[in-house]
Amino acid sequence: MSSRATAFPDPFPAREFMRDGRRVRYRLHAPPGASPARPVLLFLHGSGECGTDNLAQTHVGLGPALLRGVVPFPLLTVMPQLPPGASWQDAHAEDALAAVQDACVHAAGDPARVALSGLSRGGYGVWQLALTQPRRFRALIPVCAGITATAGNPDLRVAALAGSPDPWRAAAQALREVPVWMVHGARDTVIPVEQSRRMAAALREAGATPRYRELPGLGHNAWDAAYGDAALWRWLRDILATGAR
Questions:
Q1: Residue-range domain boundaries for the chain
Q2: Local mean pLDDT, 10-residue blocks, the chain (245 residues)
Q3: Cα distance between residue 245 and residue 230, in whole Å
Q4: Which residues lie below 8 Å from residue 218, measured CB to CB, with a gap of 6+?
Q5: Which residue, 99, 171, 98, is CA-closest to 131?
Q6: CATH placement of domain 16-240
Q7: pTM of the entire structure?
Q8: Could you give the strand order of the β-sheet that contains 22-29, starting from the edge strand earlier in sequence?
């Protein structure tokens, strides 16, 4: 009797490509079976998953939820990784967008139906990328995110809003036509919940109708509840069904 272990395919296969003379690496997740022009979700991880292994970004938040089969429609997920000490700005933000383009070409993604999500540092990245590419994304899902730097995290900020006298209002005016689903723990001591409260209020004042879930009793880890919420995935499925906003 053979003791050889059965080999299973990697649920997050790795891809890499060259951009401006640099190697860009990321992970993919796609449902089994061929599906032409699948909608795409770009996922931006948090501080704890920064590194160079091109793997840690699959371990927290969205990755575990995908393995549990929470997404009820064929969704192509793109998961880049930040190097240590970096943020989703400048070249790293451009690399993430290039990874989406690469996935659309090589893994049957639909470039007209792209959504964006991120947690913590990646939540700041959601606002940053959306503001620099306001017509690129069909939906935004920032989790325990923020707009401005906080006392404990001076490097966490949305650079696109630097110098604005009211960054929440400026962001809301620029993104008022994009569907938004926000989640934040009410007891978050890392990124205060007031960050999301102010953004939700600014979006409503701008005429938008954001979905905002504030989770009583939860601290910074709002992502397990956020990505495990079937209502979130039904909402995203309906938005991405045709690409209509």
A1: 16-240
A2: 56 93 93 79 96 96 95 94 94 96 93 97 97 94 95 88 95 97 97 97 98 97 97 96 62
A3: 20
A4: 185, 186, 187, 188, 225
A5: 171
A6: 3.40.50.1820
A7: 0.93
A8: 14-19, 22-29, 76-80, 38-44, 109-119, 139-143, 181-185, 211-215
